[in-house]
Amino acid sequence: MSKYCAGNFIYPDPFTKEENFVKCLIRKVEELKPKVLLPTHDESVIIMRHRNCFPKDLIIPYESEKLLLTLANKAQATELAKNAGIPIPEVYTHIRQVKKYPVVFKTVMGNSAKGVYFPKSQEDLVALTNKHKADETLLEEWIGGTDYSVDCVRWDGFCKTSVYRALVTKTDGGGTTTQREIVSMPQLETYAKMLLDSVDFHGVCGLDFRYDVKTNRAAFIEVNARFTGGIATPIAAGFDIPWVLYKLATTGIGDNDINIKVGTKTKWILGDVITFVGRLLSLHFSWKEMKQVFCFRGFDAYDDFFKDDKSAMLGEMFYYFEKLVKNGKLNP
User: Fold this and answer.
1) Phi, psi of 270, rounded to the nearest 5 degrees
2) What is the mean pLDDT of the chain?
3) What is the domain range of residue 44?
4) Same domain for 200 and 99?
5) What does the alpha-carbon distance between residue 1 and residue 272 come to, in Å, rounded to a whole number?
6) Per-residue pLDDT tens digits for 168-194
7) One domain for residues 198 and 277
8) What ranges make up the beta strands (E) of the chain?
9) Strand ranges (DSSP E) for 2-136?
10) In a domain, 75, yes or no
11) pTM of the predicted model, to two decimals?
12) DSSP letter string over 150-218?
């Protein structure tokens, strides 16, 4: 519903109707004849799986399906990080190895904190293990502190990164951020570059870390080999990631003079509404966090509200309402 949207179409669910999705997308490519196709989320894996079905001259600046799946797999990505010399949480191979709770239990595939749990006792952990017997899972040490995300664009000799820290997360314990602040964390940027260099990554990517200021300890969490949900923050700070990727993919030229403004803060308004409702339903919230959720001062930009394009937020609200009705979940 944004006034900047030149057109739209409805496509089949790429994850439940893969073949129909690909056919629909190919028809639209043949009709519209775009120069570049920029997937924005996990549908990128489906598209790259069928890359040969699309015109050869269509630029899709994403890695192969194999590498995308490797990086999306939390266990494999953690092993890659370890081999690259990046600190990781302690990984447990059996419940008996756990000496301290809470721990982090997660399915190796998933986004937006789906399939991520923080069991506080052995009893809780055993119950989760039994529930996810059919799933590949990862059991890790829980690290205190705050979530940090490194947004990266890497293409041949070009590599640009920025870091934001989470001020509020939509799901309790981490995951999708609703408020963020650009910070200077050169060490995390170095870690991100080390991992991407180790696989010679080309494209856009987000790497999540946990950092505890009290112990000065940082640890790798996961990779999102796509545009991240917090992309509004680096854009507001002067790092226009989609445009940088487009220029690299079409001309091979990257702008090395990008100045990222540290201290830039952004807020996802609808995300904070979802956060508030979720905390109320779970009866798990703090007044300090709620005060931050309802804060509207000190932000440089909003993810979903623009004075000159107010209808864009209405489209977003309709989308999330439809997902809530269909799936019965606040985290679709």
Assistant:
1) -60, -35
2) 92
3) 18-68
4) no
5) 21
6) 988 766 678 999 999 999 999 999 999
7) no
8) 91-92, 103-107, 116-117, 137-141, 146-155, 158-171, 174-183, 203-212, 217-224, 265-267, 301-302
9) 91-92, 103-107, 116-117
10) no
11) 0.91
12) EEEEEETTEEEEEEEEEEEEEETTEEEEEEEEEE--HHHHHHHHHHHHHHT--EEEEEEEEEETTTTEE
